[in-house]
Amino acid sequence: MIPYLQLDNLTKSWGDLPLFKDISFTINQGDKVALIAKNGAGKTTLMNILFGGDIADYGKVIFNNDIRIGYLRQLPDLNPDETIMEAAFSSVGETISAVREYECALESHDPKAIDKAMDKINRLNCWDFELKIKQILTELNIHDLQQPIRELSGGQKKRVALAHVLIDEPDFLILDEPTNHLDLEMIEWLERTLEKSKCTLLMVTHDRYFLDRVCNEIIELDDQSLFRYKGNYSYYVEKRNERIQNLTLEIDRAKNLFRTELDWLRRMPQARSHKSKYRIENAYILKEKASKQLDEKKLELAINSQRLGGKIINLEGLSKSFGDVTILKDFSYKFARYEKIGIVGKNGSGKSTFLNLLTGLCQPDSGKMDVGETVRFGYFRQDGIQFAPENRVIDIIKEIAEVVEMGDGSKLSASQFLTYFLFPPETQYSLVAKLSGGEKRRLYLCTILMHNPNFLILDEPTNDLDIMTLNVLEEYLKSFTGCTIVVSHDRFFMDKIVDHLFVFEGDGIIKDFPGNYTEYRDWEEDRSKTEQSSVKVDKPLREKTAPEKKKLSFKEKKELDDLEIEIDRLEKEKKMVEEELNSGLLDADALHKKSIRYSEISSLLEEKEFRWLELAD
Predict the structure, then answer these.
(1) Is 502's pLDDT higher than 90?
(2) Eight-state DSSP code of residue 318
(3) 89 burial type by CB count under 10 A (0-12 exposed, 13-18 middle, 19+ buried)
(4) pLDDT, tens digit, 9 for 90 and up, residues 598-616
C-alpha cells in the first residue's frame, strides 16, 4: 500500500489549552477517511497544519511527493475580481499548467516552445479540458461562467471552489466541511461522485449520511488522542460506544484497586517501605487511572418556552417577487401547534425570503399574514450574529439575562447556564476570538433559546456543530412543544425532526409533502421511474395499431403464470413496507433500510410488469 499522508507524533497547544498530543496516523492510497471531533478539539487547526497555515509545536507532516493533492477549504478563498471561468482555471494542477504553457507558446510565436507544449498537451490528453470544466460546472448547477465571483452567494462560491478542486482530478482529495452551504441536490451529487471516485479522500464533515455512504474509515480526535475505526459512521457509533463502556469499566476497576492499595499503604510499617517500592509506584499509576474523567457530558436542553395560544400564524394568498423572479405565488397556510416543518429547495428558490416574511424582516407584495398574540419567535439565522471578538463569553449571556428559567421550573445563573451548554468556567471568561467556529454557533444557539421562544425558525442550524451537539439538539426539538421550521442540508437531521416538508419548486410554487426528506426523495424517484416506464410501454402500443397475435410457447405460458404470482407477492410486500414507512415507529436506521427495500420492490415490479405486458400481448 502506498502512503499518501503520514503524521508522526504531532503535538499542538492553543495558549494554555492542549489540542492534541503525540498523534500519529497514515492515510494510504484508496482510503476514504473522515476526521470527526467535538467543537474546539482542534480539527481546523490540524487541517491548517497540513497545509502550512499553522505550525505544530512538535512532530512531522509528510506528504507523498508523487501525487496531485486537491484541498477544499471550509471558507473558499476566491479572487472576487475573477469570473467563474477564470476561478475554475486558476488551479495549479499539471493539466491546467500544460494548457497555460500552450497558450503562452502560441502568444510568443516560438515554434520550439509550441512543439514542446503540444507534446505535453498530447501526453496529458488536455484537448477536451475546457469542455470537461464546463461539464463539471454544469453538473454543479453553475451556468453563467462570466459572472464575477463577488456577485455569488455563499453556496455558489462553495460550488465554484469545489469545481476548482475537482477539475484537476487529484489523487488525494482533502475536504473541510464540503457540504456546508450546498443545497441537498448538490450534496447528493457530490456524494455519488465521491462514492464512484477512486481518489483517496480525507474530509472533515458532520453530515452523517455522507459519512455512512462515502467513508470506509473514521478517525476520532478525542481527549487529545486519536482513535481509528475501520468502517463507516454506523460502525463508528457502535464501536465508539463499546470503547466508552470499556474505558468506564477500566476506570471503575482502577478505583477499586486503588482503594485496596491505599488501605495497604496506610497500614504498611514505615521500616519495610523499601521492600515494596514497586507496589507504591503501582499505587500512583492506579491513582492516575482512577482519577481520569470521561468527558462525556451531555448537553441536555430543557429551556422553558412561552405558552402558545390557539391562533399561531395564518397566511392567506401571500405573494412575493424580486423583479422578474417570483418567490411566492398566492400561498396560504395555517400553522398548527407542535408541527415541525422542513423546507427544501434549490439555492435561490426563496427559502430564506420566506423565513424573513414570517418574522417581519421583509413584507409581502400582496396577501395577508395574521400572527397570534402569544407567538414569540426564535430565529436562528444562517449568517448568525457577529460577536465582538474582544467580548468575554459570559458578558454576552449576561447582557440578555442574569438568570435563566429552565423547563423544569429551576433557575440558573448566567455562569451555570453556560456550564449547562458545555462552556466550562475557564472558557466562560475567555474572549470570543478564542472560540472555534462550532463553539460560536453553540453560543449563538444559547442566546436564541434564552429568550424562551415558542416558534423556532432554524436556518442551517447544523453548520459547524459537532455530531454530539447535533444529537442533543435533535432530541430537544423532538420534545419541543411549540412550532418548528427547519432549513437544513443535513438529511439525517431533517429525517429525525420534521413531520412534513415545504418543497420550494421554483416560480413561487410550494408543495406540502407529508413525510420527511428520505420519504420525499423515494417518492420523487418512484414518480420519475413510473413516468419513464409509461413512455416505454405506451410507445410500442401506439406504433402497432393492429399487432400480429402469436401463440405462446409452453415455456412462455409458464413464465406468464409465474409472473402473475410474483407480481401479486411484490405488490403485497410493497404495501406492507409502505405502511411501515408511514407508521412513524421506525428509527432512522430501520427507515433507511425500508426505504432502500421500497425502491428495490418498485424496480422489480416495473421490470416484471413490463415483461408481463410483452407476454400478454
Answers:
(1) yes
(2) E
(3) middle
(4) 778 877 887 887 777 777 7
pLDDT 10s digits, 34-76: 999 887 788 888 888 988 788 899 899 999 988 888 898 888 8
CA of 426: how far to CAs of 20, 112, 429, 592, in Å? 18, 67, 6, 42
Q: Write the DSSP symbol of residue 466.
A: -
How far apart, in Å, do the first and last CA atoms of the chain sit? Answer: 57
Each residue of 37-66: b (16+ CB within 10 Å) or e?
bbbbbbbbbbbbbbeeeeebeebeeeebee
- Residue 540's pLDDT is what? 52
Rounded CA-CA distance 120/102 in Å is 9
Beta-carbon-side half-sphere exposure of residue 260 (alpha carbons within 13 Å): 9
For residue 554, the model assigns a pLDDT of 61
Q: Which CATH number fits domain 313-515: 3.40.50.150, 3.40.920.10, 3.40.50.300, 3.40.630.10?
A: 3.40.50.300
- Given CATH 3.30.70.1560, say whether it is the number of domain 3-236: no
Domain segments of the chain as ranges: 3-236, 313-515, 518-616
Cell 496531485 belongs to which residue?
68
Query: Looking at residue 544, what is its pLDDT?
Result: 44
Give the Å distances, CA to CA, from 597 to 44, 211, 578, 587: 39, 21, 10, 15
Task: Encode pLDDT of 548-578 as tens digits.
Answer: 555 666 667 777 777 888 888 888 888 887 7
Q: Dig out the grid coordinates for 275 from the structure.
A: 521492600
**Phi, psi torsion values for 197, nearest 5 degrees:** -70, 145
The amino acid at residue 56 is A
> Which pLDDT score, from 0 to 100, does residue 604 have?
84
